[in-house]
Amino acid sequence: FMYVGLEMVLMQAFEVTLTLPGIAGIILSIGMAVDANVIIFTRIKEEIGAGNSVDKAIKSGFEKALSAILDGNITTLIAAAVLYIRGSGTVKGFATTLAIGIIISLITALFVTRGLLTAFFALGATNPKLYGIKKETKVINFIGFRRIAYSISSLVIIVGFIFLAMNKKNTGDIFNYDLDFKGGSSTTITFDKDMSMKEIDSEVIPLFTSATGGNASTQAAKVAGTNEVIIKTRTMTTEERTKLYDSLQEKFSISEDKIVTENISGAVSTEMKKDAVWALAIAIFCMLIYIWIRFRDIKFASASVMALAHDVLITVTFYAVLRWAVGSNFIACILTIVGYSINATIVIFDRIRENLHNGSKKKGLEYVVNEAISSTVTRSINTSLTTFISVFVLYIFGVSSIRDFTLPLMVGIVAGAWSSVCIAGPLWFDFVILSKRKKEQLSKK
User: Could you say which of 339, 384, 414, 419 would form a disulfide bridge with 423 (CB–CB 3.0 to 4.6 Å)?
Assistant: First the structure.
């Protein structure tokens, strides 16, 4: 509650315009704020399970969670900074709310949460059962499962490329581009009463969908202080306009002079698309450099970027197969998935790095990775489930434009959870093994 309150105050202070991509940035930062607390609480439970007292467990839990929280948040903050500097329009809005959210989440997780836990302990909450006790982790053989995981992901991605090619052949476009990309028709209707968005979605939008032959690319907006509603669709023919006008007059008893339709150009220009692509590419490159420097190993950075690419391609597959409309929301969705996925991957890599220095390496590299993933899998599930629920609620109660954004975002969250658990760690393992084999071959020569 404190986090959300601070977020609202700062957004008002900086006069941030709240757009759909801006909401995406808030969703991502809330997910990261929850994640930071989950990491801390899991560490505290582990310390209590190891036999430490509650006060020592709280102190040690925060110390051990610090590196994972900082690395995850700083990596995403770097991306937000690049997106703000290099991006434009919707990308800037996303970067602004994300950056504000990350800074607040760091403050609330590292200081407010710690202050509250310390206060609870000082007030008499000293029983370890109140905090939970995590016993010895059961190590699952994720490395042994990796080839199956690679095959499943590869199959889904290949299907995506096949559908992209089929879409190009059948329609001329690889995606079902929305009005933001292709332009269309804008119809302004003056009703006799102030229609709610729920009424517009249930009573007005179906008439447009029927008139345009079931086309799903429809956007609705109200004009504040009037009874006017603006509906945007793909470019309509004269016959479709006539059909629409007749159905509107019949259902709502409004005269034809209260309905005005005009053609509009796409809101997302070619320059904006290029800006978004370049911003994303530079952001990923900067994240790769940071992870390389922070973990002192290019293999960690390479595995994290490949996991990012995996999540984006899985989401693109669903866009291609299910013909979801691709508009400006698509850019925000991909940016959110990239930010969310890199944070989840870094948490696991942080545990692998810790295991490499605490003696676990003696049990073999395979054990190091399996133990790291096994000890963080609860955190991965909890965080993904929490974020998924918040997005799902938006999907259930949101208007059509919100649903168009949240549906692919839910796919991205699931893909991110899958890649962080089953793809990223095993990829790093394979890179290490490959590097060792190359060194052995060179030494033999």
Answer: 419
Query: E strand or H helix at 243, and its extent?
Result: helix 238-252
Displacement of CA 100 from its chain's centroid (Å): 16
Instruction: Report pLDDT for 266.
Output: 62
Distance between CA atoms of residues 163 and 324, nearest Å:
12
DSSP string covering 104-158, please?
HHHHIIIIIHHHHHHHHHHTT---GGGT----------HHHHHHHHHHHHHHHHH
Q: How does pLDDT run across 419-430, given as a tens digit for each residue?
A: 999 999 999 999
pLDDT per residue as tens digits for the range 230-246: 888 888 888 888 898 99
Phi (first) and psi of residue 42, to 5 degrees: -65, -40
Q: Which residues contact 176 (CB under 8 A, 6 or more apart)?
A: 167, 217, 319, 323, 324, 325, 326
Alpha-carbon distances of 323 from 19, 227, 371, rounded to whole Å: 24, 33, 40
Number of Cβ within a 10 Å radius of residue 148: 10
Q: Which residues of 219-254 are buried (b: 16+ CB within 10 A; e: fewer)?
A: bbeeeeeeebbebbbbebeeebeebbbebbeeebeb
Asked if 20 contacts 336 with a C-beta cutoff of 8 angstroms, the reply is no
Element at 262 (helix H, strand E): strand 259-264
Tell me the C-alpha distance between 424 and 250, whole Å. 58
For residues 279 and 268, what is the distance between their CA atoms, to the nearest angstrom? Answer: 15
- Do 414 and 384 touch, CB atoms closer than 8 A? yes
Q: Which residue has the tokens 């990923």?
A: 284
**Beta-bridge mates of residue 185:** 233, 263
Residue with tokens 């949240």: 406
Please give the structure tokens belonging to residue 33: 């704020």
Q: Which two tokens stand for residue 172?
A: 């001329």
